[in-house]
Write a structure and sequence with these properties.
It is a single chain. By secondary structure, the protein is an alpha/beta fold. The chain folds into 2 domains: about 170 residues, Rossmann fold, CATH 3.40.50.150; about 60 residues, N-terminal domain of TfIIb, CATH 2.20.25. The chain contains 7 helices and 11 strands. Strands 3-2-1-4-5-11-10 form a 7-stranded mixed β-sheet, sandwiched between helices. A 4-stranded antiparallel β-sheet has the order 6-7-8-9, with no helix packed on it. The longest helix has 20 residues. It is globular and about 60 Å long.
Length: about 240
Amino acid sequence: MFPDWDASMARQAAVLDALVEHRLGAGPRRVLDCSCGIGTQAIGLARAGHRVVGSDLSPRAAARAGTEAAARGVGLATAAGDMRRLPFASSVFDVVVCADNSLPHLLSAPEVTAALGGMRRVLRDGGMLLLTLRDYDEIRRTRPLSTPPQVSRTPDGRVITFQLWHWHEDGERYDLEHFQLIPAGADWTVRRRRTTYWALSRPQLTHLLAEAGFAGIVWHAPESTGYYQPVVTCQERRART
């Protein structure tokens, strides 16, 4: 996704770290990145001095995050884990991060509620939840069918990446086809992945966060943070049931 991954890690970590410090004060903090992928946010936050654990539904991705962190001299504990059933004790993290449009992989209110409840469970009292996702209010208004091609340079040549979006009849969910065209001599190899997202609007997600027991819910626009997606922050402040 990012032409210079290390530079992007640093930029994203700076934004997220500033949001954490603004709400919780100076760190370092105990952070769980519960959808860490190959480590973009987790490694950046660890480099910024936080004590980070990365978990992901994909054991392969979580292991890659650990390998990438070690290659950069960064300590990052990793684990395979479903965000709906986080494999961690209660009340152990100051911050939970769920970035890169990961939460909308969950396609129903009960699934999102289960994930948010689990994130709240592993947060200490007053702990902070930090989510990033696409601007679905605008996306649902325009209902795009594709993304512009992106061209990146690799040692083997230029790689072309683009997406096709197939909207469901409900107008809220869509199937995303992700294509990569990779040079193969005088020809091209095509890689295709497909997944489904729920285009959660701000009112929908705000309601689900409040129902899950989070307070102080604030939406931060890219124009104000410099982050490439809208960011939502909130805190665990209510009595546990």
